[in-house]
Structures are given as structure tokens and as C-alpha cells.
């Protein structure tokens, strides 16, 4: 039992779970804002053009009342919430893409490709570890060759 409680404590206090809890609380608060936006602003404005407030629309069948206006308001809530989430995810993906581009540029600068075996090797390598080809002549050899050409 102690082991189970210890595992649960480790699980509950991990960063992912805490971030999820914060996200759920923020989502619930944001849902209240969206509900107010549709119920208090959008529905009355649409009611001006249609002459009716959506939230009060209903069909009475016997003792049952089908409130399709409340359903329309819920659909508008969903569309607005989905659109806002879409914009947030799109923005986050764009930021993540910028970070990946910078990381990949830094990674490209750290490596080069062997012209003989096409293995990716460190930029500073003078010999390919895969095919053992000498890639860059040493400074003394290069300076000696330059002097012999003169």
C-alpha cells in the first residue's frame, strides 16, 4: 500500500500532470468566457437581425420542450472554442517550427558529409571514421605543397 501511494505521489507531482491540471482549470475558465460571449453578445446581436434571441427558441410538444435555441448557442460556443484552439495550436506549431529550424541549422554546422562514402561526420574531422579517407590535408602538408608549387 505504501508503494502504491509513493507511485501515485510521483505520478501526481510530475510536471506533465501539473501542466494538465492547470490547462483544465484554464480551459474551464475560458469556456465561461466563450459562453458569455455567445450568450450575452452574439446571440442577442443575431437576434436583432432575426428578430429572435436564439437561447429562447423552443418547440413545445405536449409537456416536453425542445430547446433548439440553446443547442444553436452550444454549437456557436463549440465553433468559437475550436477556432481559438486552432489558432493557439497553429501559433505553437509555428514557434516549435522556428525552434526546430534553428536547431537543425546548428546541427548542420556541426557535421559534414564524406565525399566518398557519404557518411555524416563531425565538421572538424580530417579523416572519415567509416571509410578512413583523409578529408583535409594537415597544415604542414598543405604548406609544403604550396611551397613546392612556387
Automatic annotation (TrEMBL):
Record Pfam families: MscL (PF01741)
Ranges annotated as spanning the membrane: 20-46, 66-89
InterPro entries: MS_channel, MSC/AndL, MscL_channel
Key words, A-Z: Cell membrane, Ion channel, Ion transport, Membrane, Transmembrane, Transmembrane helix, Transport
GO cellular component, one term: plasma membrane
GO terms of molecular function: mechanosensitive monoatomic ion channel activity
Stored Gene3D superfamilies: Large-conductance mechanosensitive channel, MscL, domain 1
Membrane topology: Multi-pass membrane protein
Keyword Nucleotide-binding: no
Compartments where found: Cell membrane; Membrane
Main location class: membrane
Database matches in NCBIfam families: mscL (TIGR00220)
Protein purpose: Channel that opens in response to stretch forces in the membrane lipid bilayer. May participate in the regulation of osmotic pressure changes within the cell.
Annotated family: Belongs to the MscL family.
Record note on quaternary structure: Homopentamer.
Protein name as annotated: Large-conductance mechanosensitive channel
Biological source species: Eubacterium callanderi
Lineage of source species: Bacteria, Bacillati, Bacillota, Clostridia, Eubacteriales
